Amino acid sequence: MDIDPRICFQARLSRDARFDGRFFIGVRTTHIYCRPICPVRAAKEENVSYFPTAAAAADAGYRPCLRCRPELSPGTPAWLGTTSTVSRALRLISENALEDRSVDELAARLGVGSRQLSRLFLRHLGATPVTVAKTRRLHFAKKLIDETSLPMGQIALAAGFGSVRRFNAAFRQTYKRTPSELRWLAHVAVPQPANEYLFRLHFRPPFQWEQLLNYLSRRAIPGVEAVESGSYRQTISLNGDSGTLGVSLSSHSEALDVCLSFPEPRWLFLIVERVRRIFDLSADPSEITAQLGNDSMLSERVAAMPGLRVPGCWDGFELAVRAILGQQVSVAAASTLAGRLALSFGRRISGSGTLTHLFPQAETLAQADLARIGLPEGRAETIRSLARAVIAGRINFDWVANLEEFQTLLCAIPGIGNWTAQYIAMRALGDPDAFPAGDLGLLRATSLRSERELAQRAERWRPWRAYAAMYLWQVDINAHKRHQQNRLENTSRDGHPRMPNQKVRLNQRNVG
Question: So what CATH class is 84-185?
Answer without folding.
Answer: mainly alpha
